[in-house]
Design a protein that fits this description.
The protein has six helices and 22 strands. The protein is α+β, with helices and mostly antiparallel strands.
């Protein structure tokens, strides 16, 4: 059986053998890219791909798939290096875990997803909620939500749209605080490396608990913890900050140092500024995450007089 789809000026045809090779991780990089082009060509293609994923799941053809790496205990660790094809693999792997373990008399199987520098991912969860993960973010959770709460652990930045379930609260744990919701849209930024915690609420209501302090946020409010201080609540003034979900790095009247901090977060580089004059520069703008840090720096050089050196081995950029 084969499937054909017209997309622009190209025609893609895929048969079941293509799916089998992909699920068994026997495809070449070129074959993976062609299959993902076909999957992205239409919602129908994506549904077909997912159907066959679950079919092979049901007959356990994926039980030894290298996408899933068993470790000690009954926990599962999955590192996701997100090229175009790998991002799709993560989403369908979630479906595999959910269907395989639901209804079985077993302990929850925790899954870990890590998003590398310069990437992001959008996940559809088993309860109908969705989550976007930003660069350098790690998410740990039980895909089947088998406990009394829908609990997740985040190190990094994530945006949640949570489906309502009053009997099973949605809980997000970070290194500095815990967020509990029933149904809402909110953004949490809690990179353990930066020691900063920010939760921003767009819709609904969330309760934050940190170091014996509890606050309840209203829409368009944000809660911040910096340098070990107590929780403070402020009004959100710039919603462009959350356009990272669309693959954008946005800033409004930001200093050169603030822009470099964003580049550090998104691209995973340490940026050292040796040129003191650039610190006087302010601007507003947007960069596409996919264009890369070198492109963004070259654009800034058109307005600011500086040079830079990029050390890929040490992940350091020096501004001179």
């Amino acid at each position: 059986m084969s499937y054909t789809i017209e997309h622009g000026n190209q025609t893609y045809m895929k048969d079941i053998s293509s799916f089998i090779k992909y699920f068994a991780r026997q495809t070449s990089p070129q074959e993976e890219e062609e299959l993902m082009q076909w999957v992205d060509a239409s919602p129908e293609n994506r549904e077909t791909f997912l159907k066959y994923w679950h079919m092979f799941d049901a007959i356990h053809l994926l039980h030894e798939s290298p996408v899933v790496l068993p470790v000690a205990g009954r926990r599962t660790r999955m590192r996701t290096w997100l090229g175009h094809a790998a991002a799709m693999a993560v989403i369908f792997a979630i479906g595999y875990f959910t269907s395989f373990y639901t209804g079985r008399d077993t302990e929850p199987v925790w899954q870990e997803i890590t998003v590398p520098s310069g990437q992001r991912i959008h996940l559809a969860l088993a309860d109908g909620s969705t989550v976007w993960l930003n660069s350098n973010t790690t998410l740990r959770y039980d895909p089947s939500f088998s406990g009394k709460t829908r609990r997740m652990m985040v190190d990094g930045e994530a945006y949640f749209e949570v489906s309502t379930n009053k009997k099973k609260p949605f809980v997000v744990e970070t290194f500095l605080g815990t967020i509990e919701v029933l149904g809402t849209c909110f953004n949490v930024e809690a990179y353990s490396t930066s020691r900063q915690f920010v939760t921003s609420l767009m819709e609904g209501s969330v309760q934050l608990t940190s170091r014996e302090q509890t606050v309840v946020l209203k829409p368009d409010q944000m809660a911040i913890i910096e340098a070990g201080e107590r929780l403070t609540v402020k009004k959100i003034t710039d919603f462009e900050e959350y356009s990272w979900r669309e693959g954008l790095i946005s800033f409004t009247d930001a200093s050169f140092e603030e822009i470099m901090k964003k580049f550090e977060k998104h691209y995973g580089y340490e940026i050292r500024i040796l040129n003191e004059k650039v610190k006087e520069y302010h601007c507003s703008g947007k960069f596409r995450l996919s264009d890369g840090v070198s492109y963004a720096l070259e654009v800034l050089k058109e307005d600011v007089d500086f040079t830079y050196e990029r050390n890929k081995q040490q992940s350091v950029i020096t501004i001179k």
